[in-house]
Amino acid sequence: MESALTARDRVGVQDFVLLENYTSEAAFIENLRKRFKENLIYTYIGSVLVSVNPYKDLEIYTKNHMERYRGVNFYEVSPHIYAVADNSYRSMRTEGKDQCILISGESGAGKTEASKKILQYYAITCPASEQVQTVKDRLLQSNPVLEAFGNAKTLRNDNSSRFGKYMDIQFDFKGAPVGGHIINYLLEKSRVVHQNHGERNFHIFYQLIEGGEEDLLRRLGLERNPLQYQYLIKGNCPKVSSINDRSDWKVVRKALTVIGFSEDEVEELLNIIASVLHLGNVQYGGEEGSACITSDTQIKYLARLMSPLNLEQASSARDALSKAVYGRTFTWLVNKINASLAYTDDSHKHYSVIGLLDIYGFEVFQHNSFEQFCINYCNEKLQQLFIELTLKSEQEEYEAEGITWEPVQYFNNKIICDLVEEKFKGIISILDEECLRPGDASDFTFLEKLEDTVGGHPHFVTHKLADGKTRKVMGREEFRLLHYAGEVNYNVNGFLDKNNDLLFRNLKEVMVMSENKILTQCFDREELSDKKRPDTAATQFKASLAKLMEILMSKEPSYVRCIKPNDSKQAGRFDEVLIRHQVKYLGLMENLRVRRAGFAYRRRYEVFLQRYKSLCPDTWPNWQGKLSDGVSTLVKHLGYKPEEYKLGRSKIFIRFPKTLFATEDALETRKHSLATKLQAGWKGYSQKSKYQKLRTSAIAVQAWWRGILAKRRAQRRRQAANTIRRYTFVKGFIYRHKERCPENEYFLDYVRYSFLMNLRRNLPKNVLDKSWPTPPAALKEASEHLRKLCMQNMVWSYCKKISPEWKHQMEQKMIASELFKDKKDNYPQSVPKLFVSTRLNGEDINPKVLQALGSEKMKYAVPVTKYDRKGYKPRPRQLLLTGNSAVIAEEGKLKQRIDYGALKGISVSSLSDGLFVLHVPSDDNKQKGDVVLQSDHVIETLTKIAICAEKINNININQGSIKFAVGQGKEGIIDFTPGSELLVAKAKNGHLSVVSGLSLSAVSHTLPVDLCCDIFLSWLSSRRLPD
C-alpha cells in the first residue's frame, strides 16, 4: 500500500489514518473526491473500508482481481472489498475464530452490491466439491429471491432493501462453504398497503404481473396491468427504466428452483402474493357507521367478518391483514431458504462462521416516523458496538506490542441508547405502556407522556420543551433526538398503530382455516388459544437487536461503510453536501479520530525492513541480525525523533503521517540510483553470460568438427592401407586395360563403384546443368544411357509441374521456334515476351464490329497497318482472328473476311521487319487480291494465324523479295533490304521497298519459356507436351 503514497497528490491516500490534517472534515472529503475522480472507490480507515458507489461498472471484480487479493496481506495491495473478505476468511482459518462483516450506509449507497461481491468472492475462491457447489449456488441464488420479496424502488434507490439482513456463511474444516443461515429484521410491511409518490411496492408484485405466464395469471385471476390494483398505484410509478421486471421474474423463478422450492410450494407462494393484490381491491361502503363490501368480484364472506366495523376500521383491518399475510410469508420464505442452506453433515458438527450484516444506515427524511426511529436506534447500537470493539482492538494491539495505552476521549452514545431502551424509563417502554393502558390512548398522549418522563434528558426535545428558535422548525406533533450522528425530528403520528401491529382475532381464525399450506404454517392455531398479548413491534425489534449484538460481540468484526455520491444516481458526480451528511451520520470522523489517537502507521518489522532497507548502508542489501535491531538501525539512520515512533515486540509504530511520507519520498529518490546500479549489473551479467554461452558453444562445435575430420582421415587411411595391402588391387591396376580377368576383376569393380558413388554425389541439378563426371572406359556406354535418362527425368519432372496456362504459352512458343528460329532476324526479340490472347482492349473494338461477328468467338485481335495494292498507302486496320476466318476491320466496318480454308499461304521476310502477306486464291470473286499487312508483334501474330488456320507448314520465309497478287492476273513485288531503321515506301520501279531495322542477335536474359523451348526442342521435336 505504501507504494501508492508517491501519487498521493493526485489520488489521495489509501488510508485516511495517513491524512496529515485528520481532524478536518474538509480534508477527509477532499481525499474522497480525489480518489472518486480516479475511479478509486475504496479507501481504508485503518481496517475499516469506506466504499463510494460509482454508479457504473468498473473492471475491478474479475477472477484475476480475486486471485490478486487471495491470500495476500491486508495492506500489501490497494483497498478493495475483496481484501476485507479475504482478511476475514484467513483470520477465521488461522485463528479459528468466527468473523463478521458489518455493511452499513444509506439507501442507494451500495450495501446490497457489496454483500453480493463478498459472496461471489467466497463462491469463486473457496475450495469446492459437488455438494459444496450446491451450497454456493444456493447462497448466491438466495439474493435475487430476497431482493424480489424484500426490496423496492424508493426515491433514493431503485433497488432499496426494505429489511435488515444478517447472513451466517458456514465453513467446514477445509475452508469450504457448507451451509448458511439468514436472520431478517424489521421488514417494512407498511409498503404493502402504501407507497409515497414516486415509489413502488415490493418487486415481486410487478415481476409476477409483467413476467408471469398467461396460464399462471389466469389461474391467479390477475391481469397484466399493475394499474388495476390499488396496492400498486399509490406511488404512481408502475414502470422504472432501470428495472426489467420480465427478465427479473425469470431470474427469481430459476433461483427458487435452485434453492429447492417444489412446484407446489411456488404455486402456493404465488397464490398468497396474488391474494394480497386481490385483498387490496376490496372496496367498502356503508351507512350509519357500519361498513360493507361493495366490490362484487372480491371475497363476500369478509362482509360478515367486518360488518361491526365502520368504514375506516374496515379499511384498516383489510390493510392489517394484507401486511400480516405478506410479513409472515416473508418470514416463512427466509426460514425455507435457511432449511435449504442448513449444514446437515453429522460427521463434522463443528464449523466456522463468517457473518454478513447488510443493514439500513442512519436515516433522516423530511418526515420521519416509527420505522426511522427503529432504524436509527439500531444504528446507535451498532455505533456503540463499533466504538467499543475498535477501542478494544486498539488497546489489545498496544498491550500485545508492549506500547503504553493512552486513554482516548470519545463521545459515548450509551446515554442515547439508554434513552431509547432503558426499562420503565426509555422511549420504547413508554410507547409500550401507552399501547397497553386502557382508556383513550393516542399518539399525542404518548408525546405528552414522553415530555413528562424524559423531558429533562439532554438529548430529547419537543416543541413544548424547546426554545423559541427551535420551535420554528419543529411541529407540535414531533419530538427530537440528538443522535451521535445529528439531530432527527420524529413525527408521532402512527407510532401506536405501527407498534401494536395487531390483527383481529376473527381474521386470524380465517387464516388458520386456509387450505394454503404456507398460510397454515404462518398462522399457527396455537395463537388462537394463547391468551397472552403478543409483544409490540418495538419490543420485538429491541429483543432481536439485543440478540444481534450478542452475535456480533462473539465474532471478530470487519466494517464496510458505504457512501452514495449523489441522489440522482449519476456516474462521476460528487455531491459534497450529501457526502458530508453521510460522513457525519456514519460516524467516520469519530472513527478516524479514535484510530489516530495513538499512532497513525504500524507495520511488522520484516515488512518495514524489507521495504526501506535500501535507505541505510548498514541494512542494505540484507540485514543479518535481529529484525528489531535492523529496524532500530534503519530509523536512526533516517533521523527519526524519539517522539515520532515506538518499537514494539514485533511492529514499529509511527505517530505522524509526515514521517512516513518523508521516508517514502526518500525511497522514491533512492530507487533511481538503485535502478541504475541494477541495470549496469544486469547488463554486465547478461553480456558475460552471453559470451560464456557462445564460447562454450564454439568450443563444443570445434571439438565436434575436429573429431569428425579426424575420424574421416583415419577411416580413409585404413581403407587405403587395406586396399594397398591387397595385392590384387595393384595387379588390377596393371591389367586395367585388359579384358576382364581374375587379376583385374576387383579393380574394375572398385572403379565402377567409385564412379557410381561420385555420380550420385554430383548429379546435375537442373536441365541447364551440362556437367557429368567422366566415366571410365568400361562404363562409357552405360554413362551415356544414364545421362540421357537423368536428363529425360528432369525434363519430364519440369513439364509435369507446368500449369495449363503456362503449357499453352509454351506450345505457342514451340511453334514459333519451329517456324522462325534461325530463319527470321527479329525472332530473338520475341522470345522473352509472353504471347497474349489479344492486343486490343474491349473499348478498342467498335461494338458494330462485334455485332457483325455475331456468335463467332474472337480468339485474337491485334492492330495492324494495311498497304493498298495500288500506291501502297498505309491504312490503320484491326486484324481479328475467329474460329473460321481472319477479319480485317476499319472502325465500325468489316473490310475483308478471309476464310482459313481459302488461305493459300503466308509470306514473310527473313529480316527484322513486321510485314507479311496473306495469299488468297486469285479466282475468288470475294477477294480483291493478296493482303499486305504490318504488325509490331509479327512473330506472335503469325504464330496465332498459323495455329488458328492450321497453316503451320504454309508459312514461307523469303529472302530478298516477296511476290503477291495485286488483282486478277497482276503481280506486285516487295523488296526487302537491311538498314539502320525501318522504312516502308514505294520505290521508283513500282515495287514496295522495305528497309528493315537492326536485328538483335542475342538477348541479355530470357524467360523460362525460351530456356524450355531451346532445351526441349531436341528432346520433344516430334511430341506435344504431356497432359
TrEMBL record:
Query: Keyword Isomerase on this protein?
Result: no
Q: Which Gene3D superfamilies match?
A: 1.10.10.820, 1.20.5.190, 1.20.58.530, 6.20.240.20, Kinesin motor domain, Myosin VI head, motor domain, U50 subdomain
Keyword Membrane on entry: yes
Boundaries of each Myosin motor domain copy? Answer: 12-668
Where is the TH1 domain positioned along the sequence?
824-998
Give one Pfam family. Myosin_TH1
Residue spans making up a coiled coil are: none
Q: Which CDD domains does the annotation name?
A: MYSc_Myo1
Name of this protein: Myosin Ic, paralog b
Q: Name one GO biological process term.
A: actin filament-based movement
Give the residue ranges for region: Actin-binding: 545-567
Record's InterPro entries?
Answer: IQ_motif_EF-hand-BS, Kinesin_motor_dom_sf, Myosin_head_motor_dom-like, Myosin_TH1, MYSc_Myo1, P-loop_NTPase
Q: Which family does it belong to?
A: Belongs to the TRAFAC class myosin-kinesin ATPase superfamily. Myosin family.
Give the record's GO CC terms: cell cortex; microvillus; myosin complex; stereocilium membrane
| The entry's keywords | Acetylation, Actin-binding, ATP-binding, Cell membrane, Cell projection, Cytoplasm, Membrane, Methylation, Motor protein, Myosin, Nucleotide-binding, Repeat
- Binding of ATP occurs at 105-112
Q: Which organism is it from?
A: Acanthochromis polyacanthus
